[in-house]
Design brief:
heterodimer; A: alpha+beta; Uridine Diphospho-n-acetylenolpyruvylglucosamine Reductase, domain 2; Enolase-like, domain 1; five-stranded antiparallel β-sheet; four-stranded antiparallel β-sheet; B: about 170 residues; alpha+beta; Ubiquitin-like (UB roll); DNA polymerase, domain 1; 2 domains; globular; disordered C terminus; binds flavin-adenine dinucleotide; binds FE2/S2 (inorganic) cluster; oxidoreductase (chain A); oxidoreductase activity (chain A); FAD binding (chain A); flavoprotein (chain A)
């Protein structure tokens, strides 16, 4: 299993990236952590003629607070996310999601930008981005644009990225004070892709649910927000949550799609079990788990 | 025949320039170009952990990196741990606990256990299992490997307490 031949350039500016991407068209592909692309190349499912390595592109590896929220550079690697006090303080749901992804050796290299661009429907981070209302900054030859995560994920391995564009950063808007978040997944073996997963961010005002973003992954062709289920949760009170209307709405609005290992029926069942578990964890009592 | 390109990297403490084709993985480079065969190659797509090496001080899959990406990086393979106390203790306990049969997975297991004990010197059994869950062993079974890692942690901790005590006197 060896990759087909290719040329390799470590790009040093967005202009250089743009020129090479334009010259090679579909034959050029960017590489970040390589933890999805290199296996795909080994299996010849990807055969780029030119690899554009983003590792030297300035400014892509920073984590900082901006007036818009917490900004995470596209080349920030998973282990850096897990170790970052800024992420722990401002986006604890992201810190909580990292250990669910693959294994330590893969988390040394894999990047947040590469993960989102890859858009695996079973991946944790796209759902976390939906739950936190992330905004994705994209750069291309026509300049930069910013789009909400909810418009970024289109289908399996399919995103709103246009040819020659890259993700440069991800912004997580500041969370309200009453934010609680949690992520959980059903998995056959630690580190595997999930059979079904969910990432919830719930905003309380006093004891009342004022807002909820309930994201699911590994249920259909992309990470999705269950908006009707969220609406059924809003207005409910801490310690007195009735999960039934939330789970009914969920079953109605999300139609799971089978994958290699699980039938759609199994996923439908697991989705409800997970949602019930997370509601219990987040809203049964006083103990607050921020996210 | 692919064209060759120079790559300059630090390998087990020595900085040198080598010629590689761009599609050569770091794992193939280590074994075939440099002749360092402690790094094993199993699945070639990141799943088995046999090829685990250290890149800039952290474990990574050598099959999921092209050697050319290692330009300017610090690579350490098991050969580079000769004389490293934590690695020697781990190796000895792997031996004592029969934590290997064919040895194919062993370098990856040792590298992973080494990083675990660096960050978490006194791990629970559950933590050890979690940390080694990305490394496949196809013959020994995992219990002996987990036992050996826990024994190594205990010995390293006992030594640390002993030297800590002496230093305080
Ligand atoms: C054994 C194993 C288990 C795994 N388990 C999980 C898991 O449980 N959950 C999970 O989420 N992932 C898992 N992964 C995948 C891993 O998370 C990858 O790191 C991630 O999917 C891709 O990130 P990367 O930085 O490695 O990107 P790369 O592999 O470098 O790139 C992936 C794709 O994104 C494109 N790309 C990269 N960066 C950008 C950018 N900034 N802008 C635009 N396009 C870009 C590339 O061209 C390529 O098409 C696993 C991988 C392995 C090998
Ligand atoms: S050979 Fe690299 S992980 Fe299996
Ligand atoms: S000892 Fe043979 S694979 Fe682990």
């Amino acid at each position: 299993m060896k990759a087909a031949p290719f040329d390799y350039v470590r790009v040093s500016s967005l202009d250089e990236l743009g020129e090479l991407a334009a010259a090679y068209g579909d034959d050029a592909q960017v590489i970040a952590g390589g933890q999805s692309l290199v296996p795909a190349m080994a299996m010849r499912m990807a055969r780029p003629k030119l690899l554009l390595d983003l590792c030297d592109l300035p400014g892509l590896a920073d984590i900082r607070l901006t007036p818009e929220g917490l900004e995470i550079g596209a080349m920030v690697r998973y282990f850096e996310l897990a170790a970052s006090p800024l992420v722990a303080a401002h986006a604890p749901l992201v810190s909580a999601a990292v250990p669910l992804i693959a294994h330590e050796a893969i988390r040394s290299r894999g990047t947040l930008g590469g993960n989102l661009a890859h858009a695996d429907p079973a991946s944790e981070m796209p759902a976390v981005m939906l739950a936190l209302g992330a905004v994705i900054t994209i750069a291309g030859s026509n300049g930069a644009r910013r789009i909400p995560a909810a418009e970024f994920f289109i289908g399996t391995y399919e995103t709103a990225l246009r040819p020659g564009e890259i993700i440069t950063a991800i912004t997580l808007p500041a969370a309200p004070v009453g934010r609680r978040g949690a992520i959980d997944e059903v998995v056959r073996r630690s580190g595997d892709y999930a059979a079904v997963g969910a990432a919830f961010a719930i905003d309380l005002e006093g004891e009342t649910v004022a807002g909820a973003r309930l994201a699911f992954f590994a249920v259909c062709e992309r990470a999705v927000l269950a908006e009707k289920a969220a609406a059924a949760l809003c207005g409910q009170r801490l310690g007195h949550v009735d999960p039934a209307p939330v789970l009914d709405a969920l079953a109605e609005e999300i139609t799971p799609v089978a994958d290699l290992h699980n039938r759609a029926e199994t996923k439908r069942h697991l989705m409800k079990v997970l949602a019930g578990r997370l509601l219990q964890r987040l809203l049964s009592g006083e103990k607050s788990t921020h996210g | 025949m692919d064209s060759l390109f120079p790559v300059t990297l630090t390998l087990n403490g020595v900085t040198a320039t080598h010629e590689v084709s761009q599609r050569t993985t770091l794992a193939d480079f280590l074994r075939q170009t440099v002749g360092l065969t402690a790094t094993h190659i199993g699945c070639e797509h990141g799943v088995c952990g046999a090829c685990t090496v250290f890149v800039d001080g952290r474990i990574a899959r050598a099959c999921l990196m092209f050697a050319i990406q290692a330009e300017g990086r610090d690579i350490r393979t098991l050969e580079g741990f000769a004389g490293d106390r934590r690695m020697e203790v781990l190796q000895r306990h792997f031996h004592e606990r029969n934590a290997l049969q064919c040895g194919f997975c062993t370098s990856g297991m040792l590298a992973t256990a080494h990083q675990l004990l660096e960050g978490s010197p006194d791990p629970s059994r559950e933590e050890v299992r979690e940390s080694l869950s990305g490394n496949f062993c196809r013959c020994t079974g995992y219990h002996a490997i987990v036992d050996a890692t826990l024994d190594a942690a205990a010995e390293l901790n006992a030594a640390a307490v002993a030297t800590g005590g002496e230093a305080a006197c």
